[in-house]
Amino acid sequence: MEFSLWLALLGAGAMISLTPGAGAINTMSNALTSGFRRSIWGILGQQLALIIHIAIVAAGVGLLVSSSPLAFHIIRYAGAAYLIYLGIRKLLTKPSTNPDDSATAAESGRSMFLRGFWVNLLNPKAIVFFLAFMPQFIRADAPLAPQYAVLTATVVLIDVVVMWFIFAAGAKQLKHLTGSPRGQLTLNSSFGVLFIGVGLLLALL
């Protein structure tokens, strides 16, 4: 993978991980109820599900590349359009306040790992998103396996860092921000612009 493309992957991966979702909420909940250090178990469970999602999509993308490079590029540009669509949808999202999840008593690492795994795995939108996201960083004229390995390692490492050192470490502050309509509006606007920018950038690479 070219260094410039890897830098784009780094930025896109960070943006995706920083977007509050089920995984972030699960991580914040674990950090608040079980502590910063033990919240890593839930994060590791989420990463296993993430790797499975990537493997599922990679198998399909690999088949597509080997059979029709033209179709691959069509999906690539459709994926860029999808990222732009996500950005527009973020900008149009109205803030809402969701009730906090009830805290659970001290959990075992295994319990947090399994919950993190299922929270991420049972999210079909993740597969749809990766189907649009991954072709942006895979080049048909280069060996596929090393590209998938770099993509997977990069995305997983970014997600672990973001989940543990931002969402878990700053759980209280972030929970307060995402629970405020004004804070939600700021986050939605920021991530909306970032999604649109990355979509346009990757379509032109």
Automatic annotation (TrEMBL):
Listed GO MF terms: homoserine transmembrane transporter activity
Membrane topology: Multi-pass membrane protein
Alphabetical keyword list: Cell membrane, Membrane, Transmembrane, Transmembrane helix
GO cellular component entries: plasma membrane
Primary location recorded for the protein, binned into one broad class: membrane
Xref: InterPro entries: LeuE-type
Ranges that cross the membrane: 6-28, 40-64, 70-88, 117-138, 150-171, 183-204
UniProt-annotated location(s): Cell membrane
UniProt name for this protein: LysE family transporter
